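Batch job 17 of 40 flagged for manual review because the log was empty.
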Amino acid sequence: MLMTTNLERIPFRRILVYASPMSGEPDNPQQTIVPNVVYVLGSHSGPRYLTYVGWTNDLARRLAQHNAGTGARTTRGRAWVLLHTEEFATRNEAMSREWHLKRDRAFRKQLAQRAQNGGNGPAPG
C-alpha cells in the first residue's frame, strides 16, 4: 500500500520555499526573516517628476533592475532614486500597502516635491 503524506497532497503551486539572501551564514540554524519592503521611486522626466510604487524582498536588487531597464515597463529608460521605504513582516501586508500608496497621489506628490527641493522641507505623512 502506497502511503502519502499531507505534503504530497498539497498542490505544488502552494509550496513556497524562500532562500534567505539576508543571512550571512549559510548554516544559520535560526530562521532569518526577510523583510517585505514597499518602496517609492522618483525620476525627472523633462518638466515632470515621476513616481513609481512597488514592493520587493530585496530592495537593492530591485532598484538595480529598474535602473538597468529590466524592471517594470513603466520604469524603463529613466534613472530612478529611492524616495521612501516601509518594511512589513508579510508579503500580504506589503502588497496591501503598495495598493494604498499607488492610490495616494497626494503623498506621492509630497515625496516628489521634497525630492525636487533637494530633500528639504517637511516629511510627508
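Reviewer: the log was empty due to a logging misconfiguration, but the result itself is present. Residues 1-23 have pLDDT under 50 and may be disordered. Unflagging and moving on to job 18.
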